[in-house]
Amino acid sequence: MNRMVAPSLYEVPLQSVPWTALVVEDESIIAGAIEDALAGMGAAYTAFARSTREAVDWMQRTSFTIAVIDWHLGGETARELVARLLDQGTVPIVVTGAHRSEFDDLDGGVQILTKPFRDETLCAAVMKALAFKEERTAG
Question: Rounded to an integer, what is the distance from CA 120 to the centroid of its chain?
């Protein structure tokens, strides 16, 4: 990921209210890069999970403003986790992965990022996911 992010991307409404993120990613370097980008956007707290089981454990203890989820987590996919979050309808979702065709069937406002991606693209996807949730709850 490119660390050169335009300052205008961080001038977002998210900086004015505390918000949190759940990052589900089995690669610690990528998870750290995602955390840096989210912190730059104003995330007050980022929790990490390396598997869907860890993610579910986090979600049972804490509520999150957004979830950024890697599609491939070791030997499993995040399909069931994403479906669960979509059913609950409370957390906007950004899904990342190497092969977009594997998760093209996702709907419900899920934002999809193909790896590798830039910080700017992640920031834009987070904003789109949050805007979709806001539109859905307002309507």
Answer: 14
